[in-house]
C-alpha cells in the first residue's frame, strides 16, 4: 500500500512540476484553454520563472483588474486580435479609496514584461484620473497594442523603468501619457479626445531621457479637440521629444505649456525634430522649447535611449 501511495505521490508531483514549468499557457473564456481568466493564468506561474512564459489570450472582453507582480518576471501577454482581445476595468481616482496610482486596469511590476495584439482599457469614462495601463517594471515591450482611456490613460511609472511601445494606439484626454520612466513610442498613433495636454512627464533630474516619440501620428476626430498641447512638465526636469512625427491641426502653434511654472522653463527639455503636418508650426513654438539639429536627433534612436548600463536593445 505504501509503495502504491509513493508512486501516486510522485506522479502528482511530476504533474505539478510540469505545470510549473509550462512555457505556453492559453486563456479562453469558452473553456478550451488552460484557464478561463488571465488572473488564473498568472496565478499558475511560479515566482521568477527560468524561461519566458507566454500567456496566449483568445478573443474576448476580460473584465479583470490585474497585477503582474514583481516576482512574475519574463511574462508575455499575447492576444489573438488587438481589437477583439480586451482587458478592461473601471476604477478611477475618488472611487472609494482609489487614487490615480491604484486606478489601473493592469499594473506591471515584473521586469521584462511583453504584450502583443491586445487592448488595455479603462472604461470609467471622463470622471478624472483613470489609468488603463500602469507600468513600473524595467525592459518592457508593447507591440501592436491599444491603450484606451480618458485622463491619465498610460502611467509610465518609476524612474528606473525602460519601456518600448511600437505600432501602438494610445488615446486619452488630459495628461494621458505621464510619469517618470524612459519610454520610446515608435510608429504609434497618439489620439487626442479633447482640448488639453498629451504628455505630463516627470523625468528625474539626472535621467538622460524621458519620453521619446519617433515617427508617430498625433490625431483627433473629436470636434472637442482643436487646441491641444504636446506636453506640460509635471516635474521641473521633464523631457519630451517628438521626432519625424505628423501633427494634426489640433496641435497649438506654441506647442508646449509650462503648467504655470515659469521656473520649469529653465530645466525642462521639450524638443522636436522635423515635425510635419498642419500642427508643425515650429517657428511659432514657445521660446523655451527646442528644435533639434540632425546631430542631436541621432541621439534619440531606441537602442540608445533605452540602452542603460546593460545595453538593452528591444528593436532586435
TrEMBL record:
UniProt entry tagged with the keyword rRNA processing: no
Annotated catalytic residues: 175
Pfam families the UniProt entry points to: Pectinesterase (PF01095)
Stretches assigned to the Pectinesterase catalytic domain: 25-308
Catalytic activities: [(1->4)-alpha-D-galacturonosyl methyl ester](n) + n H2O = [(1->4)-alpha-D-galacturonosyl](n) + n methanol + n H(+)
Pathway membership, UniProt: Glycan metabolism; pectin degradation; 2-dehydro-3-deoxy-D-gluconate from pectin: step 1/5
InterPro entries registered for this protein in UniProt: Pectin_lyas_fold, Pectin_lyase_fold/virulence, Pectinesterase_Asp_AS, Pectinesterase_cat, Pectinesterase_Tyr_AS
Family designation: Belongs to the pectinesterase family.
Identification of the protein by name: Pectinesterase
Amino acid at each position: 500500500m505504501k509503495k502504491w501511495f509513493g508512486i501516486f505521490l510522485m506522479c502528482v508531483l511530476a504533474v505539478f512540476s510540469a505545470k510549473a514549468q509550462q512555457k505556453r499557457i492559453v486563456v479562453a473564456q469558452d473553456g478550451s484553454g488552460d484557464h478561463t481568466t488571465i488572473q488564473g493564468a498568472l496565478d499558475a506561474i511560479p515566482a521568477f520563472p527560468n524561461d519566458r512564459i507566454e500567456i496566449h489570450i483568445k478573443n474576448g472582453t476580460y473584465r479583470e483588474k490585474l497585477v503582474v507582480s514583481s516576482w512574475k518576471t519574463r511574462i508575455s501577454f499575447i492576444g489573438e486580435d488587438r481589437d477583439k482581445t480586451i482587458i478592461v476595468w473601471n476604477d478611477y481616482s475618488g472611487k472609494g479609496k482609489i487614487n490615480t496610482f491604484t486606478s489601473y486596469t493592469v499594473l506591471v511590476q515584473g521586469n521584462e514584461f511583453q504584450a502583443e495584439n491586445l487592448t488595455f482599457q479603462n472604461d470609467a469614462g471622463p470622471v478624472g484620473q483613470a489609468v488603463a495601463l500602469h507600468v513600473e517594471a524595467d525592459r518592457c515591450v508593447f507591440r501592436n497594442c491599444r491603450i484606451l482611456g480618458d485622463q491619465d490613460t498610460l502611467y509610465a511609472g518609476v524612474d528606473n523603468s525602460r519601456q518600448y511601445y511600437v505600432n501602438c494606439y494610445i488615446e486619452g484626454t488630459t495628461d494621458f501619457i505621464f510619469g517618470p520612466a524612459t519610454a520610446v513610442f515608435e510608429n504609434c498613433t497618439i489620439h487626442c479626445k479633447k482640448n488639453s495636454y498629451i504628455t505630463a512627464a516627470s523625468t528625474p533630474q539626472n535621467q538622460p531621457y524621458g519620453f521619446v516619440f519617433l515617427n508617430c501620428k498625433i490625431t483627433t476626430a473629436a470636434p472637442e479637440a482643436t487646441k491641444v498641447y504636446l506636453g506640460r512638465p509635471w516635474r521641473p526636469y521633464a523631457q519630451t521629444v517628438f521626432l519625424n512625427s505628423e501633427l494634426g491641426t489640433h496641435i497649438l502653434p506654441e506647442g508646449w505649456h509650462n503648467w504655470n511654472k515659469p521656473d520649469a522653463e529653465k530645466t525642462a527639455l521639450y524638443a522636436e525634430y522635423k515635425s510635419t503636418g498642419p500642427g508643425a508650426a515650429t517657428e511659432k513654438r514657445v521660446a523655451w522649447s527646442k528644435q533639434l539639429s540632425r546631430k542631436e536627433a541621432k541621439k534619440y534612436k531606441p537602442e540608445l535611449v533605452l540602452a542603460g548600463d546593460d545595453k538593452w536593445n528591444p528593436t532586435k
